[in-house]
């Protein structure tokens, strides 16, 4: 039975700066759970499967069962509240409902103070992990047979009726997710017999791909990821030249000016493109080449596939200027870079890009900005040096992204530990039931304090396209290290609310200098836009109330 473990971390390839506070990983334990509990889990899985087209998200039944059992909180001690359509809602009934809600919220809090939960949805996350593990031959060292069983369960549960898979669990079928999930199923051993590829869920997925243009119609990230696997050709990809990172930073198109998610994805993709790296061509890869194209692989005119995108995947058509730039890079730039002395420029660019990749890996303790960035970073690290220490550190952090629920195992975008905790604190305080749930608030208070980022990124971080992070809070956990403005604003609000309460109930106040650090972090990165504040580096909105809370903070009585 699967068990959620919080705040745990062992092994030579793992590193933490706060003793893994906020870490949440799932491990399978053969002897875990009573027969009754195992039966409840199976019933939850079956119920989800039967209703998967009606309600797409999971209800996190496995996590709730475990945490409620560990807390030994009786959720049935307060009566069920029913209000008739013509009945007046009394204060007494409202208070009863609030008490039940807070009691339940308290029951699913982890011992370190955060609220474990799933933060997933997109259906191309898990395939990227399986692809890079298959590429490196590290599958069995990270993914057990039980992992594979739950990953396959999740993929089948979220297959649309037409045989494809959506961008996310609620979305219409698209080529990117359908191709990725089909390939993942085949890597995991599904459809290994020829007849299985033509029938059932695997067969429906294959037919969807072939009916919508084959793999030649996959969008750009898909083209590059599959080129690494050997299921596509780099000559069918538009250029992502690493030389852009050598350009002067004052230029408007310099990568330093890109949104952090785009930049941190472009780094490894430009490295892989610059090297034209291709993994081992196995029997499975050769078979997939036959399965997923409408013509023999060797006869495809790859340059003409660069702009092919299935209509289901096309959100915004390319502009003429974009196509002209890409054609210039493809037909002029890339050929030149194959010859001396321009080839030296390529070598220098690849080295600089790899330095940035290693810097991001180290400063996020190999959690990276999010899962897509992590898995492309893993591909680049493997392409640079197979079985390097960097790649082994990446493997050690793979469990941090895996989540199990009744719909199966999936990869999360990242965790949302801090984000969920600060809102839970604000909500509980708003009920005025803090005397009853002081232990819950005290745990959360400690977690918020432990999750604050205490230092800026290492070294000359501005040359690595990073900004100040000291005093800020991340979306998830301190080890990940990426500061977020609205997470910081909401954490500051929660701490200020807690500071006005009795330390005997919620614990001692956070040190004043740490609140100053949070304010110092917030203010420089904001610009006024139509009455709201926009974080210019992370591009997320900050609550207008943050200024109100800063004013409260400056009152002597609240220091």
Give your account of this protein's structure.
This protein is mainly α and 559 residues long. Helix content is 48%, strand content 6%. It contains 22 helices and 9 strands. The chain has helices at residues 35-50, 61-71, 91-107, 125-136, 139-142, 145-157, 175-187, 194-198, 200-211, 220-229, 260-275, 283-291, 320-336, 342-363, 371-384, 389-396, 417-430, 438-451, 485-499, 503-506, 512-522, 545-553; strands spanning 2-6, 24-28, 165-166, 173-174, 402-405, 408-411, 526-529, 532-535, 541-542. It has a 3-stranded antiparallel beta sheet with strand order 7-8-9. A two-stranded antiparallel sheet has the order 1-2. The radius of gyration is 25 Å and the shape is globular.
Short description:
This protein has 559 residues and is mainly α.
Model regions low in confidence, pLDDT < 50 over at least 5 residues:
530-545
How far apart lie the N and C ends?
A: 48 Å
What's the helix count? Answer: 22
CA-atom Rg in angstroms: 25 Å
Break the fold down into its secondary structure elements and pairings.
Elements: E1 2-6, E2 24-28, H1 35-50, H2 61-71, H3 91-107, H4 125-136, H5 139-142, H6 145-157, E3 165-166, E4 173-174, H7 175-187, H8 194-198, H9 200-211, H10 220-229, H11 260-275, H12 283-291, H13 320-336, H14 342-363, H15 371-384, H16 389-396, E5 402-405, E6 408-411, H17 417-430, H18 438-451, H19 485-499, H20 503-506, H21 512-522, E7 526-529, E8 532-535, E9 541-542, H22 545-553
Antiparallel strand pairs: 1-2, 3-4, 5-6, 7-8, 8-9
